[in-house]
Amino acid sequence: MSRKQKVHESLPLPFDQVLAAIADENKPAEITSTARPFVKWVGGKRSILDELLKRIPASYTTYYEPLLGGGALFFSLKPEKACLSDINFHLIITFQTVRDDVEKLIERLKTHAENHNKAYFLKARERLFTAKDPVEIAAWFIYLNKTCYNGLYRVNKAGKFNVPIGSYKTPAILDEENLRSCAEALKNAEITQQSFIQIKPQKNEFYYLDPPYHQAFSGYDGKGFDDEQHKQLAKICAKIDNVGGFFLLSNSDTDFIRSLYKGFTIEKISASRMVSCKGNQRGKEEELIIRNY
Predict the structure, then answer these.
(1) pTM here?
(2) 13: which of 17, 101, 135, 193 fits an S-S bond (Cβ 3.0–4.6 Å)?
(3) Which residues contact 62 (CB under 8 A, 6 or more apart)?
(4) Which domain holds residue 218?
(5) What is the pLDDT of residues 153-185, one digit of tens each?
(6) Are residues 211 and 172 in the same domain?
(7) Angle ∠(115,118,122) on CA atoms, nearest 5
(8) Chosen domain end from 129, 156, 187
């Protein structure tokens, strides 16, 4: 059986314009760069972004992330107005440098990538704490993050970075395209070094809170994040709720954490932990998402 030929009506356009229209129709879609975290971070949330994004408040004034880490949700959400903070000095200097001086940072990282070896890594661990220039600090910080064991940031009691070198054959020290995308995403963000306890909640503001997992590695600032600090964070969440703000919090599933947030919405999800202080702890874990709306 022969197929009936489909006849199209002629287009009311000159022939050259028709050809141009067909060419445009068949062009591949333009690929736009999407910013993603430029550092690896213990407890990073890239694996549960879909779960977080579908729970974002319908509307809010300003986005706050006071336990910044890698900033996965911020980079995915790209809020128009954001206040980002963390107690980790080197992390905040690095975010500020990506925002303000990304091209100089890229040039410095090229040098680190070219010179990478074990001796250079050990030198970097010292230089991170003696450098004065923000670009130099940020470059050492990213270099160490990309080359150390499991991407950890850990300091000893003296405040010195003490993570050993990782076993990567070709560590991805420099991603120019992503750094520039991150700089664009951060251009209007306020970035400050401060503790989460300095939060002063206001009505209609949205706070995403991602503390170190309860009963897990948490020494990223040399002091850790103990039960008392988890209690303080719960009190901050209560304040946010009382003033008419919104909070979304993620943490490990323990009875202690559940007890702190009674009365709020608590949901359990499955999360992949790709960065951990112990290699055998990577994999699927149960995690809680807690919110007041």
Answers:
(1) 0.83
(2) 17
(3) 79, 81, 82, 83, 205, 206
(4) 35-87+194-293
(5) 988 888 889 999 999 989 999 999 999 999 999
(6) no
(7) 95
(8) 187
